[in-house]
Amino acid sequence: MNTESGKKATVAYWAMPAALAGMGVLHFAKPEPFYGLIPPELPGTKKAWTYGSGVAELAVAGLLASPRTRRAGGTAALVLFIGVFPGNLQMVRAWRRKPVWPWQAIAWGRLPLQIPMIMAADRIRRGA
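The structure corresponding to this sequence follows.
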């Protein structure tokens, strides 16, 4: 493997666990912005859901970081990304009265971004 392809492989390997770990930490360091993503129909407090999803993101990041558990981490990431989709829909619903630019554009733009994340997690799950 040449140096350039080795660097790309390293970045590709660490991108998802690093992003999930960073977001997981943010759920604890600055939880308030995440409260607006919690659908009001869910039982329990927004704080509990925020902390719970932060724990899930940190756990998935840990699974993805280890070669021995990476495929299980891919499965967990796939489930996580599907599971947080209602939060993205909640953002669209909550921000419907905000100005179209940039708020509604951000909220709607997040929805299709889940697709490549789900597909990447599935590739990891399959060992591709």
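The mean pLDDT is 94.
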